[in-house]
């Protein structure tokens, strides 16, 4: 099928129709009856999905794409580049290679790179694409990753694993023990072939649950892209027993924000009623659970133990959104009628008994505008509303 799809006229057709509605294309007559039209349509759909996520592949001629689901599940180039900066040495083996985006970026840092993929058809596609991308030095193996490790029988500086989070029995899963391969069960086996493991897990995996499942965790990287958590990366080092570094990272177009701390932590939050400025942590920071560390490291105060909002007198740089507080009032019928009823505002709730939808409906507040309203609870357990101007 690869050779058929590489015919110049078919490649031109794929490129010319990238971005067009698949439903419209599917109704048209196949201009290449000797080739399965579904395969051509899949190439168009997968290439369209790659434009923003995988620009290196999108901009290279004669790339063959797997199913659109594989494209949706693969790492983005932004997160793959970040992962590549976490490793060093001369060799790495990716036991769950997939479309090969991570491996491509590993190869920019490390000389000897091995790509393993159980799906033989996908492995052939990846090998072809690596040749197109001038990465023919990457070794590609198809088959069971455990058997491949045994067959190669060489230690590498790193093993990378992105376990499949789909189970035939349980459907979509997120605990590492339910994924394939079962990393917690195979840790000792992997340590026979490398002292360093880099593991990617579901962004919804609870950190405490992951730490309990694994051992020898050296660091955890919570990676978000434009404030959406995409990956949790676990660095495991053989025999490591010290503190665990937690690193929160947000990747934007040309920026990288980060915040880090160690577990266990002895930090304690300080508390205050709202002051001049309000701070809302970004998603990666929220995922880390390091709420006391935020208060300690920035020298800012929490509004309430469960609110995860912070305040200060002086304006500070912060890993998250920053607002200037214009007005604070108790949540009451009288105050809402005076300040917000029938208005237009952006609403956020933190530790508040009503949902955003309930508040909008009850007080006839339209979405949008330049006013930002936070409905929350103070340290003395009063329900309040903060009217703010956004700074960042």
SS class: alpha/beta
Distance between the termini: 50 Å
Q: Which term fits the overall shape? A: globular
Query: In what range is the share of β-strand residues?
Result: 25-35%
What is the level 1 CATH name of the largest domain? Alpha Beta
User: What is the fold named in CATH at topology level of the largest domain?
Assistant: Rossmann fold
CATH superfamily of the largest domain: Vaccinia Virus protein VP39
Count of beta strands: 19
How would you state the average pLDDT, rounded? 94
The helix content, as a percent range, equals 25-40%
Structure, explained:
Residues 277-318 form the PG-1098 ferredoxin-like domain. Residues 320-390 form the THUMP-like domain. It comes from Flavobacterium orientale. This protein is α/β, with parallel strands linked by helices. The chain has three domains: 2-71, Arc Repressor Mutant, subunit A (Orthogonal Bundle), CATH 1.10.10; 74-262, Rossmann fold (3-Layer(aba) Sandwich); 270-390. 32% of the residues lie in helices and 29% in strands. It has 16 helices and 19 strands. It has helices at residues 2-5, 8-17, 22-27, 37-53, 55-58, 68-73, 77-84, 101-106, 120-132, 145-152, 183-191, 207-213, 283-288, 291-298, 333-339, 356-363, and strands spanning 91-94, 112-117, 139-142, 158-161, 166-167, 171-172, 196-201, 217-225, 228-237, 244-251, 256-263, 270-271, 277-281, 301-302, 310-312, 320-330, 344-350, 366-377, 383-390. The strands form three sheets. A nine-stranded mixed β-sheet has the order 3-2-1-4-7-9-8-10-11, with helices on both faces. Strand 10 (244-251) and strand 11 (256-263) form a beta hairpin. Helix 2 (8-17) crosses helix 4. The longest helix is centred in the first third of the chain and has 17 residues, at 37-53. The radius of gyration is 25 Å and the shape is globular. The N and C termini lie far apart (50 Å). The mean pLDDT is 94.
